[in-house]
Automatic annotation (TrEMBL):
UniProt enzyme class: transferase
Binding site for S-adenosyl-L-methionine: G118, I138, G139, D140, Y141, V142, L143
Domain of life: Bacteria
GO CC terms of this entry: cytosol
Listed GO biological process terms: tRNA N1-guanine methylation
Organism: Natranaerovirga hydrolytica
Protein name in UniProt: tRNA (guanine-N(1)-)-methyltransferase
Function: Specifically methylates guanosine-37 in various tRNAs.
Keyword Chloroplast applies: no
């Protein structure tokens, strides 16, 4: 997977992503980060990339030309990839569709993705209309810039790419995969602060363990995210269990 990230703060993303599992995936070249500093495409001697909004109001806006020049340069450098295909460019914005696991799975099918990180009050609308294909938010709150948001997206997408997670870290059963939250986990020691591990997990009986986990998953989702239960396609037995 090739990620092309247009940002004013490439060092923030480089430091944030070059550790742990994603850092290893970069080392193994399962994913490639191409960090493009938009400021390198400013065409004035002070490398200025922002200006006051027309119509007045607080804050500054990112100007369209440096972003467009940076975008054109990357498209040109990778022209074999984009010869018959418009680049898929995600603009991170609180005004976008809220990112979720289903979207991560869909993005993970691509072989290359572009991301535009806004800053200040945002970005001139005209360049967004020209280059953006997807408007994505990471939640209903406002960040100072798109850099943390792109790191969230890249982390969630990359761990779905084959080879990025080892078997130990597999995505086999996780929250959201079947529309429910995952069951609780326990490891050694057997007793901690007077609390012991549920007996069924020591029974060695896989059918019983799976049944217990499914029930815990249902109960947890009901308690913490009732909105997910409403959308999940539950079997008759599962519905009966929840009614008890
Ligand atoms: N004025 C904009 C608005 O009200 O929609 C908010 C601008 S915000 C201060 C600056 C930048 O941070 C945005 O351009 C966007 O790239 C990023 N950002 C802020 N909140 C975000 C969120 N919830 N999800 C994704 N990106 C976000």
């Amino acid at each position: 997977m090739n990620y092309h990230i247009f940002t004013l703060f490439p060092e923030m993303i480089e430091q944030g992503l070059n550790t742990s599992i994603i850092g290893k995936a970069i080392e193994k070249e399962l994913i490639r980060l191409n960090l493009i500093n938009i400021r390198d495409y400013a065409n004035n001697k002070h490398n200025k990339v922002d200006d006051y909004p027309y119509g007045g109001g607080a804050g500054m806006l990112m100007q369209p030309e440096p972003i467009y020049s940076a975008y054109k340069a990357v498209v040109h450098q990778h022209k074999e990839t984009y010869v018959n295909k418009k680049p898929r460019m995600v603009y991170l914005t609180p005004q976008g569709k809220t990112f979720n696991q289903e979207m991560a799975e869909e993005f993970a099918k691509e072989s290359s993705l572009m991301f535009l990180c806004g800053h200040y009050e945002g970005v001139d609308e005209r360049v967004l209309e020209e280059v953006v294909t997807d408007y994505v938010s990471i939640g209903d709150y406002v960040l100072t810039g798109g850099e943390l948001a792109v790191m969230v997206m890249i982390d969630a997408i990359s761990r779905l790419i084959p080879g990025v997670l080892s078997n130990k870290e597999s995505t086999e059963y996780e929250s959201f995969q079947d529309g429910l939250l995952e069951y609780p986990h326990y490891t050694r020691p057997y007793e901690f602060l007077g609390k012991t591990v549920p007996d069924v997990l020591l029974s060695g009986h896989h059918a019983h363990i799976n049944k217990w986990r499914k029930e815990q998953s249902l109960l947890r989702t009901c308690e913490r995210r009732p909105d997910l239960i409403e959308k999940a396609s539950l079997s008759e037995d599962e519905k009966k269990f929840l009614k008890k």
